[in-house]
């Protein structure tokens, strides 16, 4: 949720939050069906290998994206502290 807060203006956060929560549920449904078909096609080891590769690629992409947002968050926290003091 902090990622949504950091990347969306206040007036768009509700829509972004709804999309995020819906995507989690849809992903769970589709992921189960996809995993079952992958087990049939590639065996259970192949399914875990493919899922692992996708997970590693996704984490690399998200990691490069989130490091830039951390700088903005720190700046915002510093500005908030200055206003409070």
UniProtKB/TrEMBL annotation:
Q: Where in the cell is it found?
A: Cell membrane
Q: Name one GO molecular function term.
A: transmembrane transporter activity
Q: Which residues form the Major facilitator superfamily (MFS) profile domain?
A: 1-85
Its membrane topology is listed as:
Multi-pass membrane protein
Q: List the GO cellular component terms.
A: plasma membrane
- Organism encoding this protein: Peribacillus frigoritolerans
Q: Where is the signal peptide?
A: none
Query: Does Hydrolase count among this protein's keywords?
Result: no
Instruction: Write the protein's name.
Output: MFS transporter
Q: Spell out where the chain crosses the membrane.
A: 20-42, 48-68
Its keywords, alphabetically, are: Membrane, Transmembrane, Transmembrane helix, Transport
Q: Which Pfam families match?
A: MFS_1 (PF07690)
Q: Which domain of life is it from?
A: Bacteria
């Amino acid at each position: 949720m902090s990622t949504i807060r950091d990347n969306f203006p206040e007036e768009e956060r509700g829509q972004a939050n709804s999309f995020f929560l819906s995507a989690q549920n849809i992903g769970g449904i589709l992921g189960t069906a996809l995993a079952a078909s992958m087990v049939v096609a590639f065996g259970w080891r192949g399914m875990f290998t493919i899922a692992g590769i996708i997970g590693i690629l996704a984490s690399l992409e998200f990691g490069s994206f989130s490091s830039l947002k951390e700088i903005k968050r720190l700046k915002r926290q510093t500005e908030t502290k200055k206003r409070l003091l």
